[in-house]
Amino acid sequence: MRLISINLGNPQPLQIGNRATTTGIYKNPTEAAQISTLGLVGDHISDQEHHGGPDQAVYVYSAEDYDWWMEQLGEALPPGTFGENLTFSSFGEEPVRIGDRFRVGEVLLEVTAPRIPCSTLAARMNDPQFVKKFRQAARPGFYARVLEAGRVQQGDPIQKISAPAAFPTLSEVFHLWYDKAPEAARLRWILTAPLAERARAVFAARLPL
């Protein structure tokens, strides 16, 4: 596994339906970047209610997912199209789990949550149905916290350090998010993993009193 692209966003205007907003989802590649515990230095995050922070400091997608989307959509999609900060060549042969760690250059990342699609992504893709398409594709990529800050450079090798097999996969968390009647036992199980705080709060709120 290698780091294919490092992507930084500058604030740009975006029209979402009748609402005009500012977004950092439009990313441009850079050869190297410094990553702190709050993400890539120089990257703009507009919607800080739902994105960013220590538990969602970095968003990561894979070239393998891009290949799948390009086949589905019939168009070229350069790295950064989905708003990810880092584009990996792949995530490895095994499913990604919450708590998996990835060593990239000087940086150590820990997986905390799948990406849940929103209207910003749909507007970025110029497709009102894209939230539904992204959900059905179940290729969310992942958010990560930064356990060790440092510098990353395009082409850096990536080492995966697997989480305990008892922790849920990204796919399991992603599908549970949309489960309208989740089992309490499954919610408690998900909450044993080192989830991002936003995701933890959502799942904890769904537990029966």
Structural overview:
It is a single chain. With 209 residues, this protein is an alpha+beta fold. 23% of the residues lie in helices and 30% in strands. The chain has helices at residues 63-73, 119-124, 130-137, 170-177, 184-190, 197-205, and strands at 3-9, 12-16, 19-23, 27-30, 32-36, 39-40, 58-62, 86-88, 101-104, 107-114, 142-148, 150-153, 158-161. A hairpin with a 2-residue loop joins strand 9 (101-104) and strand 10 (107-114). The longest helix is centred in the first third of the chain and has 11 residues, at 63-73. It is globular.
How would you summarize the topology of this molecule?
Blueprint (H helix, E strand, L loop, with lengths): L2 E7 L2 E5 L2 E5 L3 E4 L1 E5 L2 E2 L17 E5 H11 L12 E3 L12 E4 L2 E8 L4 H6 L5 H8 L4 E7 L1 E4 L4 E4 L8 H8 L6 H7 L6 H9 L4
Parallel strand pairs: 7-8
Antiparallel strand pairs: 1-4, 1-8, 2-3, 5-6, 5-12, 7-11, 9-10, 9-13, 10-11
